[in-house]
Specification:
By secondary structure, this protein is an alpha+beta fold. The protein has 10 helices and 5 strands; from the N terminus they run αααααααββαβαββα. It has a 5-stranded mixed beta sheet with strand order 2-1-3-4-5, with helices on both faces.
Length: about 240
Amino acid sequence: MSSGSRMPSGGSQTPPGDRPRERLFARGAEHLADAELLSLLLRTGARGASALTVAAEVLARQGGLEGLARAAPRDLAGVGGVGPAKCASLLAALELGRRCAAQPLRAGAPVRSPADIHRAFHPILRHVAHERFLVVLLDGRHRVMRHEVVSQGTLTASLVHPREVFRPALREAAAAVILVHNHPSGDPTPSREDREVTRRLARAGRILGIEVVDHVVVAERGYTSLRDQGALEDVEAEPRA
């Protein structure tokens, strides 16, 4: 049984010294079980069930914190005691956690390696249940301007059109871009489609005068740079039109 499911059966029977709020202030948040922390976000329970009981039910249905991190509003709607307001609070807290864990690419900062991309986007993308394709805009010295989501695909593929990828780059006069997308499977190994998309977009970028610096696949078990794997070599060897 996980630490999140070890809990008293009813809030009314819990001695004050064992209640999550009191325990948090007395010992620190790190000493609380998953269900106890979650109950503090829920604040109240349902008819006949404490907030702690509802929290344990949420974790059980979602398969623990990993499943909860991937939850959509519809996934939480079936749990008694979790209405729209509590659902919004849970999803907001999860997003704040992801943002705290991320090391954002700040405007004006140089991108030195694909590891910089992984550190910035892994906490944000690791629990996304579908493929999300982003473009990082760079100036002429490969310093970050900003990033933008350009496509959200299915569990198995992300449909990306050059028009969508380069529109923000053209709009903001970016000199170069880094392509980023996630693999919900957890495996960062590029697919054949990933390689084809990379070459297609690199060729489109050459026509537009916008360099594709890299395409980084981010997943739970690491990342892969398609530049490091040679996916851009053929395109860069082609004569310019």
